[in-house]
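Listing S7. Sequence submitted for prediction.
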Amino acid sequence: MHYPTLQHGIWHNAPAEHPLDADGQLQVVTAPGTDFWRETHYGFTHDNGHFLAVKAPARFTCQLRVRGDYQELYDQAGIMVRVDEQHWIKAGVELSDGRAMLSSVRTDGVSDWATAPYPGDPTDFWMRATVDAGVLRLQVSADGTHWPLVRLCPMPIAAHYQVGPMACSPKRGGLRVTFSDWTLGPASGKDLHDLS
């Protein structure tokens, strides 16, 4: 089976600056007031964040490296897995409460939000997502080798998904992020506690 690269992606709200070089390194500079969120607590819906959507099959594992310069509240970058505007998850680093946090937002009609302090270097990390039989497994890595679990949750079963790099800056414009080391392939099938 052929698995697409970032060059095959289609932008959901393309930023003004988003060069993608031949080696698959993507540079993004966010527009102001960009975010993905639905309803919960705030009462608003935003679906104008930057997301380079690559078509993935019903079962897959993908990962990418994220390097960002987070400066303002809610600056965020990472990975997104999406079925439609009401069913998606985003995960990565987000600036909140004065520090860079490991953050994930799952949306099933409305959004939830989970955060935890990230012990690694928040300006340079990897995210991995595996979808298999209605389950999404999110992992993070400081080195691209060791992958502790971030989240395990239901994901609507679909014939295919959109997956790829995501960045938003709800309070400003100008968050600079570099995405690289993209891979997309079959669902890994590893044991839940296999951190390789």
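Caption to Listing S7: primary sequence and predicted structure tokens for the chain studied. Residues 65 and 126 are 4 Å apart (CA to CA). The chain has one domain: 6-183.
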